Amino acid sequence: MAGSGVFTEILDGDVYKYYSDGEWKTSGSGKTVPIINPTTRKTHFKVQACTQEEVNKAIDAAKTAQKSWAKTPLWKRAELLHKAAAILKEHKAPIAECLVKEIAKPAKDAVTEVVRSGDLVSYCAEEGVRILGEGKFLVSDSFPGNERTKYCLTSKFTPISFYLYCYHYQWSKMHKGLISCVTGKGSEIGDFLTMHPGVNCISFTGGDTGIAISKKAGMIPLQMELGGKDACIILEDADLDLAAANIIKGGFSYSGQRCTAVKVVLVMESVADTLVEKVKAKVAKLTVGPPEENCDITPVVTESSANFIEGLVTDAKQKGATFCQEYKREGNLIWPLLLDNVRPDMRIAWEEPFGPVLPVIRINSVEEGIHHCNASNFGLQGCVFTRDINKAILISDAMETGSVQINSAPARGPDHFPFQGLRDSGIGSQGITNSINMMTKIKSTVINLPSPSYTMG
């Protein structure tokens, strides 16, 4: 990226600087953190290993900037966000290149992700004006036992700014210090930041780390998406071509490395053979290789992830699962694999591979499928394929998940829809409106009027 000429001002040699108080800085620690390219398994980027004192300064700067931001008219805040979104989309190519090298996201999908982020910023700007500009006027006699002598004006203030591509936010002339990008080692600044008294809200996407954060964070709002074992239930009357297409889309896009990916297929025995054959035919057409070539299946993000996936595959093989393809791995690159006749005693039936390996469990009743879904430690999303809308609604009601898609693969978006999980899948609800509300403080001012008898006496 250093050679691209776009981000050169934020580089110190071959190390990216961190962003704090409106400036790009080099950490006083003199240390760096390597970012490994999943394809080459070699260091591709380096970032600063910031110190706790540098974290303190970034938070202090944000606190100061927030007071100024809170006084900025809503239309002006929206204007700046729209400008940031436009800049983001204008420079989508170099950002997408970073995604390709850092997480092996296929090139075309990386560009789409950047554009989607810009669109998300613009939508947030409009929704923020609508929500934050809405005042409420409450009257005391609307609640039983109260006279009409108390009026309450409620307003929302100091929404916590979100972090998105701060280099481009810098160009949009956001308030100095409002956005920071602090990098470093978890052992040095991870817990320090989580438990910092200056942090008013935490939004995090991850797995075990998120659970650890929730245990250490103080009394602040938490918004966490921590993984899923998203179940796909397929009934006898389902459109099997539609189901197979969505299983491929839901289970193997971005190599299955999505929290909303189809993680287990629960199919009625009577149609299982037909469905598996249709999915196998589509798996055979998936391209495998480097993200730069826009392959369907690209390397998983870390070697430890690849090792974990291989452990699940080995366990399934030892316990008698049917391999629809030969298992193949080169470094972090794992070829797509469909496992049929998976049983509940296999790890792959319950654990999240976060890779291009998908188990199929054959069921003999809808109740069996619902039971498996609800017995999971996760409860993020699920989907149901059937032509009977009544069955679909009943099954959806019975599935203990944050969202259920009918005749479609699970999906994160559209981004203004509520997005939440149960159990180990997280806490709090995402989605633009929900996120803005969570990151907003409510303040009430109560006006006490003289009682009617006093005024008229």
Automatic annotation (TrEMBL):
It is an enzyme of class 1 (oxidoreductase). Residues 24-135, 155-444 form the Aldehyde dehydrogenase domain. Keywords: Oxidoreductase. InterPro entries: Ald_DH/histidinol_DH, Ald_DH_C, Ald_DH_CS_CYS, Ald_DH_CS_GLU, Ald_DH_N, Aldehyde_DH_dom, ALDH-related_metabolic_enz. One of its GO terms (molecular function) is lactaldehyde dehydrogenase (NAD+) activity. Its EC number is 1.2.1.9. The active site is at 225. It catalyses: D-glyceraldehyde 3-phosphate + NADP(+) + H2O = (2R)-3-phosphoglycerate + NADPH + 2 H(+). Belongs to the aldehyde dehydrogenase family. This is NADP-dependent glyceraldehyde-3-phosphate dehydrogenase. It comes from Morella rubra. The lineage of its organism: Eukaryota, Viridiplantae, Streptophyta, Embryophyta, Tracheophyta.
